[in-house]
Specification:
single chain; alpha/beta; D-Maltodextrin-Binding Protein, domain 2; six-stranded mixed sheet; five-stranded mixed sheet; 11 helices; 11 strands; globular
Length: about 260
């Protein structure tokens, strides 16, 4: 039987690698396919999906909504914050008005939320997400918009919280889960391939949950923060029942985010 090739692009953040690790390691394979995995920063993933660079791509939820004409949003594999979300941080003892904010990409969900939460305006300074902390510490920017695991431990970098976008979203939406990332596939691949990919992602999550010791070396090897407790906190924050199947609750959250996007 001829094997089909499939490219899958995700970020190296712990929730993505936890979800896909069993698939990557061959513990939850996709039948009939040779799969090639690629890792990129979230903004690179967003731009790559728009250019149809890969078959399966993890993108910001805001970008997934923009791609609905050409791509399907998968029912699983996404990141939904139930309590946590992106955070805007500043240097301690800094009373300077926030005008310039380092952001992890202009197409990210975090950026969309920030535009809505700070209607008074600001100047975004796009950069790769792991460079943001240093830019804030050096005073290159007034503030930084943190995502991924670093948003959970900003105090360790001697930074203060300026705005918690997770809490802001909950207040605006009566505690809906916050859709941060989704998995998309071009519609051209068809419903059969989409269903196979969804089943494989779900299998991969279930293997990771049942046998975390088999996949955590890969997760920690790709993570920015190496502390095991931080990694577990990050995974717990963004891998949940909605990652296995977003269902009606997740779709309602995405629809609400879309209204934010239309009015940003």
């Amino acid at each position: 039987m001829t094997m089909k090739s499939l490219s899958i692009a995700i970020s190296p953040c712990p929730n993505d690698t936890f979800i896909f690790a069993a698939w990557i390691l061959g513990l939850a394979p996709l039948p009939g396919h040779n799969c090639r995995f690629i890792w990129h920063d979230v903004q690179e993933l967003n731009q790559g999906a728009k250019a149809n660079s890969w078959a399966v791509t993890k993108v910001s939820a805001a970008t997934a909504l923009c791609l609905q004409g050409s791509h399907d949003i998968l029912s699983c594999g996404g990141a939904f914050g139930l309590k946590h979300g992106p955070k805007v941080v500043v240097r301690r003892n800094n009373d300077k008005p926030v005008q310039t904010i380092a952001v992890p990409g202009l197409d990210t969900t975090a950026m969309l939320l920030l535009q809505r939460a700070m209607p008074q305006g600001f100047t975004p300074v796009p950069m790769v997400f792991h460079a943001i902390v240093h830019a804030v510490q050096k005073g290159t920017v007034d503030a930084g918009l943190l995502i991924h695991e670093t948003a959970l431990i900003y105090e360790q970098y001697d930074l203060n919280l300026h705005l918690d976008l997770g809490k802001w979203w909950q207040e605006q939406t009566q505690n809906l889960p916050l859709p941060l990332g989704c998995i998309v596939i071009p519609k051209a691949y068809g419903s059969k391939t989409r269903a196979l990919v969804e089943k494989t992602i779900q299998d991969s999550i279930q293997v990771a949950q049942a046998q975390p010791e088999r996949i955590m070396p890969l997760v920690s090897g790709l993570a920015r923060e190496l502390d095991a407790i931080v990694l577990k906190q990050h995974i717990k924050a963004y891998v949940n029942d909605l990652s296995l199947d977003m269902g009606t609750k997740g779709m309602n959250a995405l629809n609400t985010l879309q209204t934010f996007w239309k009015h940003a």
